[in-house]
Amino acid sequence: MFGILKKLKRSGVVGMNQRNADFILRYNKRSLYPLVDDKLRTKYLAMASGIAVPKLYGVIEIQRDVARLPEIVEGHEDFVIKPAHGSGGSGICVITRRLNNRYRQNNGDLLTEEDIAYHVSNILSGLYSLGGQPDQALIEYRVKFDPLFESVSYRGVPDIRTIVFRGIPVTSMVRLPTRMSDGKANLHQGAVGAGIDMMTGRTTHAIWQNYPIEQHPDTGVTIGGLEIPHWHKLLTLAAQCHELAGLGYLGVDVVLDRELGPLVLELNARPGLSIQIANRRGMSQLLEKISKLKEIPASAAERATLGQELFLKNQT
């Protein structure tokens, strides 16, 4: 661990204070925070912009509409319910299949229709929202993650977090659910973070609870060397979210569906910094180079390529 910290320091790790002062405050207008903190508004904007997202089945905004839930999920064997203003995966209910009149969650529990209605009511009351404000419940398509991740995740959907600065992808990691994280792709709750080579889309190093690991803690399968499909398309999708949100510095979470390919899950105006530990490399030098660029391509695909080129130069 100490060796990793020394390497991070040499490569220019960005700390919390520097991130806030030099990037978030400078490049992110505070007036835009409510947009990215609202998953429903973000989804509508993405859909209008042609950015791929999990299909929205319906929205429940007020208590009396909870009765509409069976109608919304009719014809869908599986689905996801999530709060519009939740964070860290709180309040997300993943239904993987139906069994008679019950619904099976991804953790194996069986829920009745009344259980699900109660959960939606809790979402509406603000139990899971930022600041405890009244919220909305989104019901959407359940991502069937790419088979690549089957042996390195536990009862959840891995996602790929990319930091995008001035529209250019800077660094990425894949977050792998574990038993400790209860199937959530959240590092603070116990998920694994694996760094990604930006040129190849191949996983490199991994951390769990801030310590380096080589195998997934639940499955025992080696994490490094996984080649993520659709890599350049995924980076292009992340770059597109710069225009979508209007933020100069943001985190973009993308999931890989086995049939639909990369889908944007959510945006983050204040992405964490653990991504540097997962990659065993600080972002400071890359961010400085990008901040000094006088011209940045208008095309998201060209910005994705530029991000890869800058990454490669930064390795030498």
From TrEMBL:
Source taxon at top rank: Bacteria
Pfam families assigned to the protein according to its UniProt record, in alphabetical order: ATPgrasp_ST (PF14397)
InterPro entries found in the cross-reference section: ATP-grasp, ATP_grasp_subdomain_1, RimK-rel_E_lig, RimK-rel_E_lig_ATP-grasp
Keywords: ATP-binding, Nucleotide-binding
Molecular functions per Gene Ontology: ATP binding; metal ion binding; ribosomal S6-glutamic acid ligase activity
GO BP term (any one): SOS response
Domain ATP-grasp: 43-294
GO cellular component terms attached to this protein's record: cytoplasm
PANTHER family: BETA-CITRYLGLUTAMATE SYNTHASE B-RELATED, RIBOSOMAL PROTEIN S6 MODIFICATION PROTEIN
Official protein name in the record: ATP-grasp domain-containing protein
Native organism taxonomy: Bacteria, Pseudomonadati, Pseudomonadota, Betaproteobacteria, Nitrosomonadales
